[in-house]
Amino acid sequence: MFRIINLQASRSLAKISLSRRTFSTTLMKLDATIFKMPAMSPTMDVGGVVAWKVKEGDDFSAGDELLDVETDKATMSVDAGDDGKLAKIIVPGGTNDVKVGAPIAFICDQSDDLATLKYPALDAASAPEPAAADTSKPAAAEPTPAPKASSNSVTGGKANPDQVFFPSVEFMLAREGISREDALSKITATGPNGKILKGDVLAYLGKIPAEENTRIASFIADSEKLDLSHIELASKEVEEPAKDEAKEAAGEKAAPETKKPVKQPTLVKGEFIISKEIPPKVLSKLIASAVAKAETAAYATKNYASSDLIDPLFEDLIAPPRNAERFKVNYSISVVPSKPTATDEIIDDFDFEPYEQKPVKKSSTPATAVNVELTCNDKVYDSKKKAEAFISRFGSYISQIEGKFA
Questions:
Q1: Into how many domains does the chain fold?
Q2: Which residue range forms the structural domain that includes residue 207?
Q3: pLDDT tens track for 178-227
Q4: Where is the Lipoyl-binding domain (predicted)?
């Protein structure tokens, strides 16, 4: 069983090698093959050879990097599509403005001898190759009659022979069986720098009026340049000082500029009294904790009351972001001085006899005042409502603190 598999594998490899040699017999007639400047993009006309990665006489395999090509946008590498040998470099590295399709090197098979290798003529090789549709479709080479081409001849630009066709133009030429030579010599180019557009091919085939194609191209060309000859500069800067001088001459004083009042932020304040005596350090910690808890509770407060007519999901979608700052908290702790209390003795205003005055009794426990001021963020519409919820919840926490030290 294993021998049969090996035999079949060897036969398949033999078929592959034979098919490769058979495919390359057309190239072996000239021994060496011309390697042309590749087009790295559909709109690339010229490029630069940055550096060769393979030296003359070196073999390369499929996928190896042959050279780096520089375009007007980037530098890209060109990989080998098959095994071969770099026979001779025509365009050395560092050369700029190399036209697409121009010969840049000679390549051959890895088994070829460079001493006896024959090189093709560059003049014949640099000529544009006919489209593949000409050989595959000989009958479709003349789909367009001559009178139709003459009727579509309109005034326009001559096609640039060094251009690279757009994919849409190249596909249409191949479909209609029009070679590159016929397209460059017969089709009127209305694109920039002699570029053949899809509309030019359609006009040549008679599928659209040639006059309309030329008119559209002329309109686009005229719109590319902005005509500013009819625009006049305004003279407001000259007239305004003249008016001010006339007012000053007449004794009129210009009205002072009114400054717009600066909008003050919304403030929500609250004052809370703690009558119980609490150590200062303990009181500071308890108030800081109450501020943090009240702020968390205020942000969690809903902007709507519970109802069957309200969709909570929709309300959350239209509400401001939860992490948006609603207010800033500023608070201070101060001691309120105790007020003296009246004695039980009642002094008669009409009693002028000397009497013994008793000392005034003072309150034994001073009160503590906590003043809270919230600066609302007016950019968030529910900031004031959240601030009021903070004041309410903070007052509840202060009552709990006072109850613990009762």
A1: 3
A2: 132-222
A3: 999 988 988 988 888 888 998 899 989 888 888 888 888 888 877 777 77
A4: 32-108
